[in-house]
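Question (not urgent): is this output format expected?
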Amino acid sequence: MDPSGTDPAVGTPADYGDTLYRVYFEVGEWQGIARDAITAFLLDRRQAHASFSVAPAELRPRPHGYEVDLPMQLIPEVVRVLAERNIAVYQVVRTERR
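Got this back:
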């Protein structure tokens, strides 16, 4: 913690906390494959880690991708899952803290 009482790691790749961030994944979607990959990832994480509270139903479709609230450290994991399924990821945008 710095003198202001905030953790300097919050909002950085070193943020291993439970803080949720709204994240938009712009993907090349075809027949719901990206949606299914992200949903499966969220289900697996939820079953493996009881403290992980993001439900697959919280995945919000957008015109060219999906939006979901995630802890910082799961963002690259979602990208990895999409890449493993050969889904093109055009951008990842982390917006406000939830």
